[in-house]
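HOLO CASE FILE
Compound: adenosine-5'-triphosphate
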Amino acid sequence: MAHILVVEDDLSLREVLSMFLHKSGHEVVAVHDGDQAFRELDGDDSDFDLVLTDLRLGRRNGLDVLTHVKEVSPQTEVILMTAFSTVETAIDAMRRGAFDYVGKPFKLDEISITVDKALEKRNLRLENIRLRKELSQRYRFDAIVGKTSKMHQVFERIMRVAPTKTSVLITGESGTGKELVARAIHFNSPRKDKPFVVVNCGAIPDQLMESELFGHVKGAFTGAHATRHGLIETAVGGTIFLDEIGELSLTMQVKILRFLQEHQIRMVGGVQEQSVDVRVVAATNKDLAVEVEKGAFREDLYFRLNVIRIHLPPLRERSEDIPYLVHHFIEKYRKALGRDLHGVSPEAMEILMSYRFQGNVRELENVIEHAATFASGGIITPEDLPEHLRADGSDTARHDDVTTVPHDGLDIEARLADIERRILMNALKRTNGVRKDAADLLRISFRSLRYKLAKYGIGDPED
Ligand SMILES: Nc1ncnc2c1ncn2[C@@H]1O[C@H](COP(=O)(O)OP(=O)(O)OP(=O)(O)O)[C@@H](O)[C@H]1O
Ligand SMILES: [Mg+2]
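Model generated. Tokens follow.
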């Protein structure tokens, strides 16, 4: 239900419109000229969701009403109605922020569709404002977005370890935000004004790794024409981020372990040890315990790194974060692509929330970038999402989701309770809240259903 102001000098049209909108469940105020419209807009009860105004009204016309609405209440949508619609007025009206205009005469279903669309846009906008507010107030830590308690634990850990010098191991699947966390640790530490140096251990060939990290002296090997400092030295006073540390060769692992223990480096071909103050943050998407078992990762280095570990849960285990992430990326691409974007339709959000993102947050970000490029009318709808997302509503995908056991385990009671709660909600949705029917659907007694609803705190306030 919305609060709508109708401004129309034609008595019969004004009454037809008012009645029609009233029947559709809206609360309507109808006036016959611009002066009255201004009075309503300036009055105490002026929180209109939508204004439907005629263009030709006499002294103050529809464009004046539009301009005034946008001044006093920018969130209110305005639809212009006009029998004299010329292209110029329409363009002018849109430029001044009208949602749309309809040419008279119009059919009631025609205006009804436009009204619904305008209200949907307004709701999305309000939803967006709410999300943005929550996002900036509570659900982010630096650039890291997360509402779920799992992510809050991550934030807490970052805050706790950041001020210290201890090395940290960040684990998690690809695209879960490991590098973001590494940066947050550095930029919330006393080292924040010193360098943050990223080393991708998977991308540097093993023969070069030692000299890359520790540097080399002139003549240390063929091609070493001059002495070169290593990456660790360039990070002095700051942090070195050893990304994909699971890719390091066993030989390099020994050298890193020594560095972690002694805080000393020696250039390739050099004789002198040099003390350096560099904090190490490492990340991997491998399960290092398994690598240790396979003999591919040194146990001593693993223990050394694993003292402080921050694990990033995959996105499929924190789907409540998705609306906030979506909003965060919409903001990002709205600015980057210069597009008028203000939200996601509820249908599209439902698809996003139930999709199993293999590539986690990175994949979600790519999806929003894609959708932002294709969305028209400022709203991302299911059609703007990549094909494979829409195809994946299948039961198996969801079924799989809830039965997967992650490598760090799960709480089976909590998981089962969550499934039960979701089934109850779905059954109630299907029966429009009629509990007797929901009980039948789920083949349990009414009593038993009531008990379960109470257990999960779902349902009637009267109970
Ligand atoms: N919680 C989050 N909030 C906002 N953006 C995020 C979040 N997590 C990840 N991202 C974004 O997703 C992308 C991937 O994140 P990042 O590079 O940190 O992942 P990663 O775990 O290092 O992945 P990989 O293992 O593939 O290197 C980045 O653009 C990052 O900004
Ligand atoms: Mg990474």
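CASE NOTES: Residues 143-146, 172, 174-180, 285, 325, 328, 361-362, 365 surround adenosine-5'-triphosphate (ligand 1) (CB under 6 Å). The radius of gyration is 30 Å.
CLOSED: yes
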